[in-house]
Amino acid sequence: MAAIDRTERIRKRPRLAWDVGPAGQEGAVGGSGRHVSPPKRDDDREGHYVFNLGENLTPRYKILSKMGEGTFGRVLECWDRKTREFVAIKVVRSIRKYRVAAMVEVDVLQHLAKNDRGRLRCVQIQNWFDYRNHICIVFEKLGPSLFDFLRRNKYCPFPVDLVREFGRQLLESVAYMHDLHLIHTDLKPENILLVSSDHVKLPGCKRFSSDETHFRCLPKSSAIKLIDFGSTVSGNQNHSSIVSTRHYRAPEGEQLFKTHENLEHLAMMERVLGPLPEHMIRGAKRGSRLNWPEGAVSRESIRAIRKLDRLKDLVSRHVDSSRSLIDLLHGLLKFDPSERLTAQQALDHPFFKNPM
């Protein structure tokens, strides 16, 4: 995709009229000063935009709250005075590499929207602008991420029927991107948002063993959307050999591989999924087997890996009649990418075709 290949060039935009008002009054609208921009401030040490609640982000958007923060910047809940609706605005740090990634995201979002044909599985871009050296991307306002929902819910697992609906929609999003020769590269619960914040509160969560009454929350709607396309690459484009947050790199899992050490990560994969294929090890110049436990960084690391269960046992602890789900996961977690299920193939799996 040509738009993504232009990542080294940040678009030039003229300074917009609303950022410099007449007679030196910054942000005046038509000279009235009704919705002025705040006085200019220095960014913080990390290049984040500094703001106060109730201020304007251009005269069009009023800042209501901070919805989240990441390495890229901050997401602000704003009121759009033009459309009279709540929006989420991603305000990117004023650092070149994040500005470049933001423009990649704008290109990808516009390309996805142009070809969407009503599927609406990816977050919708409404607008973008460059404000005081911060790329700002305006999105529809959505609910919490699956990660935030789980965390607030004390990590009570979702029912398998809800997991099935999440999985179906996520695979549809990925398949759609692959049809356009795009690779997201950073799929994880933090980047999957519920469309609505509405939820119901139910008693009981099996993981708690005390006599105290506990509750769990379930979303009222299973609708989700995929976000954060700043790391997206074209399928035929050269890209970094390191992609995706480590814990969720293929093969993925319920943070099955919670580590920051390369060899330990591979050893965890072998423990949960079985031995790495010999031809892949030989191709990595590691001999005929993984250098484990000889290469372990500590005895604690060895003990932690020995405690891990096989994938079948992990799933069976949470799901009754789990055969089709285990088979699907094994297909998605194949070490050899040539043997791994594609997103479209996974959608045709019995787990989605025969729920019972």
Instruction: Output the CATH homologous superfamily of the largest domain.
Output: Phosphorylase Kinase, domain 1
Summed over residues and divided by their number, the pLDDT gives a mean of 83
- Amino-to-carboxy terminus distance: 41 Å
CATH class membership of the largest domain? Alpha Beta
What is the count of helical runs?
A: 10
What gyration radius follows from the Cα positions, in whole Å?
A: 23 Å
Gross geometry: globular
Could you say which structural class the secondary elements and strand pairing correspond to?
A: alpha+beta
- Total separate domains: 3
Task: Bin the helical content.
Answer: 25-40%
CATH architecture of the largest domain: 2-Layer Sandwich
How much of the sequence lies in strands comes to 15-25%
Number of strands: 12
Order of helices and strands: EEEEHEEHHEEEEEEHHHHHHH
Largest sheet: 6 strands, antiparallel
Task: List unreliable stretches of 5+ residues.
Answer: 6-32
Structural features, described:
The chain has 356 residues and is α+β, with helices and mostly antiparallel strands. It folds into 3 domains: 4-140, Phosphorylase Kinase, domain 1 (2-Layer Sandwich), CATH 3.30.200; 142-244, Transferase(Phosphotransferase), domain 1; 247-356, Transferase(Phosphotransferase), domain 1 (Orthogonal Bundle). Helices cover 28% and strands 17% of the residues. The chain contains 10 helices and 12 strands. It has helices spanning 96-115, 146-152, 160-179, 262-273, 278-283, 299-306, 311-316, 323-332, 343-347, 350-353; strands spanning 56-57, 61-69, 73-80, 85-92, 125-131, 134-140, 182-183, 192-194, 199-203, 215-219, 224-226, 233-234. The strands form 4 sheets. It has a 6-stranded antiparallel beta sheet, with helices on one face. A two-stranded antiparallel ribbon has the order 7-12. α4 runs parallel beside α6 (299-306). Residues 61-352 form the Protein kinase domain. InterPro entries: CLK_kinases (IPR051175), Kinase-like_dom_sf (IPR011009), Prot_kinase_dom (IPR000719), Ser/Thr_kinase_AS (IPR008271). GO terms for molecular function: ATP binding; protein serine/threonine kinase activity. Keywords: ATP-binding, Kinase, Nucleotide-binding, Serine/threonine-protein kinase, Transferase.
